[in-house]
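Q: What would this chain look like folded?
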Amino acid sequence: MNGRRITADRDRCIGAGMCALLAGSIFDQDDGDGRVLVLDPVPRGELGAVLEAVAVCPSGALSLDEG
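A: My prediction, written as structure tokens:
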């Protein structure tokens, strides 16, 4: 995933958790409010899972930016 960076808009996140289910080593949920936490903003693997998580996020809070 050279140069790609994951960003998450926590204000937009509704805490559905699809991202954490699809790519648990990249995403987690905050214990307090359930909103997304990006564990690795520049992941080295799991491109397919990251792309799927971005695509299925119901609130559109996730994006994958090209570096």
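Residues 47-56 form the longest helix (10 residues).
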